[in-house]
Amino acid sequence: MSDERFDAVILGSGQAGVPLAKDLAKAGQSVAIVESWHIGGTCVNVGCTPSKTLAASARVAYLAHRSSDFGISGGEIHTDMPAVIARKRQIVEHSNASNIKGLEKAGATIIMGEGGFAEQPASAGEYAIAVKAADGTERRLITKQVFLNTGERPVVPELKGLDNVPFLDSTSIMELEEVPDHLIVLGAGIVALEFAQMFHRFGAAVTVIERGTRLLPHEDEDICSCARDILLEDGLEILFETEAAEVSGTTGSIRLKLKDGKELHGTHLLVATGRRPNVESLHLDRVGVKQNEHGYIEVNDLLETGVPGIWALGDVKGPPAFTHVSYDDYRIVAANLLHNGSRRVSDRTLVYTIYTDPEIGRVGMNEMEARKAGKKIRVASVPMSYMARALEMAESRGMLKAIIDTETDLILGASIVGVEGGEVIAQIQLAMLGGLKYTVLRDAVFSHPTKSEVLNTLFMSLDS
Ligand SMILES: Cc1cc2nc3c(=O)[nH]c(=O)nc-3n(C[C@H](O)[C@H](O)[C@H](O)COP(=O)(O)OP(=O)(O)OC[C@H]3O[C@@H](n4cnc5c(N)ncnc54)[C@H](O)[C@@H]3O)c2cc1C
Ligand SMILES: NC(=O)c1ccc[n+]([C@@H]2O[C@H](COP(=O)([O-])OP(=O)(O)OC[C@H]3O[C@@H](n4cnc5c(N)ncnc54)[C@H](O)[C@@H]3O)[C@@H](O)[C@H]2O)c1
Asked: Whose CA is nearest to atom 16 of ligand 2?
């Protein structure tokens, strides 16, 4: 096996790896991007793109069921799951193909296989990467720059009997060509809630099992209760302070014994108990790259691992695990390496959207975090029913909340449970990025009746 030399090797073609490979290649570097599964990584193939495509179908089913609320009568509503899955596959295939085309056009070399630091090291100042393809063939790449973007995969929890039960995870549930009669969902994080609501809308009875007393522990209590009440109102069953002890059965007949001795029966089981980093195949110990106690790769504010010439980007370096965070990791590394920049992770404002319906949008600090940080704050909060457009659309469930610094009047953060909450939160984010006081949004003239118009009302509530 002869050595192949590259200026840069990227392991994993996630949300950071693909654009970084393109930029490095366009800058004249020879770049190899190594991928063990599918180009584009989780988001494109088994994450955001397919799940939001399916959620769009689920929302149509939801609105169809509610058509009489709008004075429209229709016939019987049926979920054609093979057609729903076919639509999803088409959109995923398109995104996957564009990723490949983009890499090829930029001149990056795509190598399909599992990559990791080789047992036999390269000479000083260089790294040897061993790549094993699915057919068993091996290649050895030599480089001075390695970018680790290998992401995460679903956790399989320790649960008696799980080895013998055909359970679903976030990937396999998106290939299900039937609507389960009764889906049991283990875990109540973001993945769990998005799929639970989606499959309920497709027609399944759904039971969510949560160990704790509330959903989404990173959100404020009132935001969580608001989201919980909406899901309960829609007909999902959520069992709090409930732990699974043992599972048995097969698809169509799953039995879940709980620690309190009760038993649950369902037809399908979705395990959504979190994700863990893809690090085992990297053999990080061979080059001295450090990991934290959860296995995530440790990096500094510039995404450097501490070993010269090795960076880590995206989910593999630990939470927050979002596509836009990974993409911004790419921008930080590219700006600093190729454009003499000085971008840092700590300059980034956290923003994300949980795609339940209504969405849960979040930017910056919430009340819990601001109080913990000892900030002097004022809290603005209004129900979604104050939004004229939401009433007109019969989508008035939810609430808006913003946290203001008492001393400066600057907005520290906001949370929204509500129709297009992710979009409305982006308006607040822009104000925060621009360093605007809350009074600017309070007094701004928005078109009537847009959803953003409610920002007048939200911030007026502080002074009324
Ligand atoms: C169901 C689901 C829905 C989601 N929805 C959203 C959403 O709506 N919005 C959002 O912001 N985020 C969402 N996420 C999270 C988002 O997908 C990730 O945060 C994002 O993909 C981060 O990607 P990454 O760049 O870290 O790597 P990934 O996209 O995970 O890519 C890593 C790639 O590395 C490959 N790999 C692993 N080990 C090796 C190796 N040794 N050699 C070669 N290749 C390797 C993997 O096969 C994978 O393709 C969702 C996740 C899931 C599971
Ligand atoms: N809309 C989005 O942006 C989006 C969508 C999906 C995923 N993601 C990203 O992916 C990450 C992972 O999401 P996730 O939902 O897989 O993980 P998570 O860590 O958010 O949630 C895991 C859940 O499983 C529960 N749990 C853990 N072990 C358990 C056990 N043994 N039995 C029962 N419950 C158990 C936890 O209490 C928690 O409720 C998210 O944090 C997010 O960063 C983002």
From this structure: 274
Reported as a single tens digit per residue, the pLDDT across 107-120 is 999 999 999 999 99
Give domain 3-153+276-347's CATH architecture.
3-Layer(bba) Sandwich (3.50)
* Ligand that lies nearest to the alpha carbon of residue 174, given by its number in the listed order: 1
The pTM (predicted TM-score) of the whole model is 0.97
Q: Is 448 a residue of the active site? A: yes
Report pLDDT digits (tens) over 371-399. Answer: 999 999 999 999 999 999 999 999 999 99
CA distances from 45 to 15, 39, 170 (A): 11, 8, 11
Looking at domain 156-273, what is its CATH homologous superfamily? FAD/NAD(P)-binding domain (3.50.50.60)
Rounded to whole angstroms, how far apart are CA atoms 248 and 178? 21
| 208 Cα–ligand 2 center, Å | 13
ipTM over 0.95: yes
34 CB near ligand 1 (under 6 Å): yes
